[in-house]
Specification:
The protein is of the alpha+beta class. It folds into three domains: 94 residues; 110 residues, GAF domain (Beta-Lactamase), CATH 3.30.450; 127 residues, Heat Shock Protein 90 (2-Layer Sandwich). The strands form two sheets. It has a five-stranded mixed beta sheet. The chain has a four-stranded antiparallel beta sheet with strand order 2-1-4-3. A hairpin with a 5-residue loop joins strand 1 and strand 2. It is rod-shaped. This is Histidine kinase/HSP90-like ATPase domain-containing protein. It comes from Nonomuraea rosea.
């Protein structure tokens, strides 16, 4: 019986010797926490297993006889592992810590899955990571579109924190900052990989929100442009046309010559109204995008069709080849040119205009005229053209030419917007 008891006690004290062996690789605070953790677990384990062992010997001695020691040892050995796990879980909950890296990873993953969104998941993950690492503080920084940084923190980082880069599929998502030196670098790397997934989700959420905002701005600019064109262009033209027809009708009997002049004037006004209506329709859905489409006529053909519309003489200059352009870039360039030419025909009072497209590192579109320039409110209303360029990652600027007139310059990268 004494031999069996010694075997049971050796099985209990063995893990304590292993824990003592790893103490030398930890800092002072980590050693103290691990020693207290193991002491509580194995003290309780010794009490429980010892109670089972000696209880079986005491109560089963009359029934089992000399076999009671062996039965007690077998029962203690069978209970050892499940009881240790339960006691370890209880102590972990008591100290708010966890030593099993797989359970730690699962706990962090669950905290992220239970969050309401990527931003909330990031905050939950930072808290779970701090508890998993047993650190005084943890901060997670995610780089958002436009260079903005979203930061969440839990606890205090102190004077000399450790910084780990969050990498997702080779792309840097941000940084994980932990107070002090990490006790378990392998666990820190595992948590960094999980946080990189959350950081990527936060970036995607920010991209989606930014796209929604740009779509809203573009839609409102489209509505504003349509209302402005109806109010300032087509509306006055139709009103003047109605007045000319009424005057011609009254003059038809008394002065047929005057009526003929008024009808000729009405005919010109009708032509202007047709051009205005066509510009409005083309602005909503350019004909080059329907039927054969830009894929057939190409950007060059669409721009030459745009230059043939009534109004000032328009020259189209294309020094290089425009083949194999990204579809989004072609559409953006055409719509910017269409809006710029609409402003030239309605407001610039120009006699000539120039559309120039050059292919360098990107696509450079220039629309200039020799008119009187655009009023300040028209230049401020050019946000629609800027939005078209920004949709593909480019830019668009409007300025006054040194010799008079207006110049629109759009720089569009030759890649699909990501």
């Amino acid at each position: 019986m004494r031999k069996n008891a010694r075997l049971v006690l050796l099985g209990i004290s063995g893990p304590l010797l292993v824990s003592a062996a790893v103490l030398s690789g930890m800092d002072r605070r980590g050693r103290a926490l691990l020693l207290l953790d193991r002491a509580l677990v194995y003290a309780a384990l010794t009490a429980v297993v010892g109670a089972v062992y000696f209880g079986i010997i005491t109560l089963g001695g009359t029934l089992l006889g000399s076999w009671s020691g062996l039965v007690a040892a077998l029962a203690a050995g069978a209970l050892f592992h499940p009881v240790r796990l339960r006691l370890q879980d209880a102590v972990n909950r008591l100290f708010g810590s966890e030593r099993d890296p797989y359970r730690l990873a699962d706990r962090v993953s669950r905290s992220m899955q239970e969050a309401n969104g990527p931003a909330e998941a990031l905050a939950s993950a930072a808290t779970a990571a701090r508890r998993a690492l047993g650190a005084d503080g943890v901060a997670v920084e995610v780089v958002l579109p436009g260079g903005r940084v979203r930061r969440v923190a839990d606890g205090e980082l102190g004077a000399r924190p450790s910084v780990v880069r969050l990498v997702w599929h080779g792309r840097s998502m941000g940084w994980l900052t932990v107070a002090g030196e990490p006790r378990d670098p392998a666990l820190l790397d595992m948590l960094a990989r999980q946080l990189a997934e959350v950081a990527h989700a936060v970036q995607l959420s920010a991209d989606l929100q930014r796209s929604r905002e740009r779509m809203l701005v573009t839609r409102e600019e489209e509505r504003h442009r349509l209302r402005r064109n109806l109010h300032d262009g087509l509306g006055p033209t139709l009103t003047s046309l109605a007045m000319s027809v009424d005057e011609a009708r009254r003059s038809l009997a008394s002065d047929p010559g005057a009526a003929d002049t008024l009808l000729s004037k009405a005919r010109r006004q009708m032509s202007e109204a047709v051009v205005d209506v066509r510009d409005l329709v083309y602005g909503l859905r350019p004909p080059a995008l329907d039927g054969a489409g830009l894929t057939e006529v190409g950007l060059e053909g669409a721009l030459r069709m745009l230059a043939d519309a009534p109004g000032p003489r328009v020259e189209v200059v294309l020094p290089g080849l425009l083949a194999e352009l990204p579809a989004a870039v072609e559409v953006a360039a055409y719509k910017i040119a269409h809006e710029a030419m609409a402003n030239v025909r309605r407001h610039a009072r120009a006699t000539t205009a120039l559309i120039r497209v050059e292919r360098r590192d990107g696509l450079r579109l220039t629309v200039s005229d020799d008119g009187i320039g655009l009023p300040e409110q028209r230049r401020q209303g050019a946000a629609l053209m800027r939005a078209r360029a920004e949709e593909v990652g480019g830019s668009c600027e409007i300025d006054v030419r040194p010799g008079g007139g207006t110049e629109v310059v759009a720089e569009l990268p030759l890649r699909e917007a990501g």
